[in-house]
Amino acid sequence: MTDAPGASEPQGSTGQPILDRLAFERLTQAHRRELKLHCYRMMGSLHEADDLVQDTFLKAWRGRSQFDGRGSPRGWLYTIATNSCLNAIKARSSAHRILEQPGRLPTEGRATGGPAAELAWLEPYPDSELPDLADGEPGPEARYETSEAVRLAFVAAIQLLPPRQRASLLLCDVLGWSALETAQLLGGTTASINSALQRARATLAMRYPQGRPVERSRPNREEGLLLERYMQAWQAANLDDLVELLREDAIYHMPPWRDWYRGRDAIHDFFKTVWGNFAGYRPVATRANGQPAVAVYARRHQEPEWRAHSLHVIEPADGGIASLTIYVGPLGPDLFGAFGLPPAWL
């Protein structure tokens, strides 16, 4: 913290010092990961989430005299973090981040719509930063499982919600807070929170006819084999083997390009236009948003160095790939550091 405590600590209502530096560090360490995930869900940005967690802890340290130990320290931190996110959203040009440009039809053939630096793109979230289940376990009123509420498609869907609806849904349906607790955090009445929840759930129902994402199985042997085959296809630069792993109705996004593709044939036709741009590919397994992911390095013709090329987030379903999101340049390579990966190697 930049504001280190001085010789005189703030006094609570009992006149005793509260939240000295060691106690505060223990508190922030215990809740850092779940607060970062909450900020990520609110913002759709890994980098903004990092900044907002630091901002939350700085505000908490400066305002620690307002916490007298009688309430929940976790709730106190969530209040600061959520309001920081709402203020940050209000201050930026776009209220939400996207995987797909609204109103844009799927492309056929060569990509022509990007990269679009002026659009705010939803970023992936490394599994290494996910909180332990003990820290992130939702309350009894939560409507979503932890594994559902971190998936890339779910985070993209809630980005469509106005900020206050988004916060209400995350606090109630993801974290399991009551409408009363959420009203105390966000301000307003319980009725206003229930109204916001009703509208938010209606919006998600348009994206999810069953009212929630299709439940996916936990990581298993079948998923592991699918990932292995996917990596082998890239390693061998075998486009036919790669496309064979896609479901017939697969969806492919490629941020920061506007273009997106629907269906195995359309995805194959696009990849055929770019497949020979590099001399070879080297995949590295990772995980993002609770899903299998791959970081791909590429080597250009006549160059010895393997450079960060793209970050792939895979949505498996029924033994195949239902959705494939590949973060390409310049956005993709910039994400490697957050996943603990070097930008290049020989």
UniProtKB/TrEMBL annotation:
Keywords: Nucleotidyltransferase, Sigma factor, Transcription, Transcription regulation, Transferase. One of its GO terms (molecular function) is DNA-directed RNA polymerase activity. Residues 152-204 form the RNA polymerase sigma factor 70 region 4 type domain. Residues 28-93 form the RNA polymerase sigma-70 region domain. Pfam families: Sigma70_r2 (PF04542), Sigma70_r4_2 (PF08281), SnoaL_2 (PF12680). Its EC number is 2.7.7.6. CDD domains: NTF2_like. It comes from the Bacteria. SUPFAM superfamilies: NTF2-like (SSF54427), Sigma2 domain of RNA polymerase sigma factors (SSF88946), Sigma3 and sigma4 domains of RNA polymerase sigma factors (SSF88659). Residues 228-322 form the SnoaL-like domain. InterPro entries: NTF2-like_dom_sf (IPR032710), RNA_pol_sigma-70-like (IPR039425), RNA_pol_sigma-70_dom (IPR014284), RNA_pol_sigma-G_actinobac (IPR014305), RNA_pol_sigma70_r2 (IPR007627), RNA_pol_sigma70_r4_t2 (IPR013249), RNA_pol_sigma_r2 (IPR013325), RNA_pol_sigma_r3/r4-like (IPR013324). Belongs to the sigma-70 factor family. ECF subfamily. Interacts transiently with the RNA polymerase catalytic core formed by RpoA, RpoB, RpoC and RpoZ (2 alpha, 1 beta, 1 beta' and 1 omega subunit) to form the RNA polymerase holoenzyme that can initiate transcription. This is RNA polymerase subunit sigma-70. It comes from Mesorhizobium shangrilense.
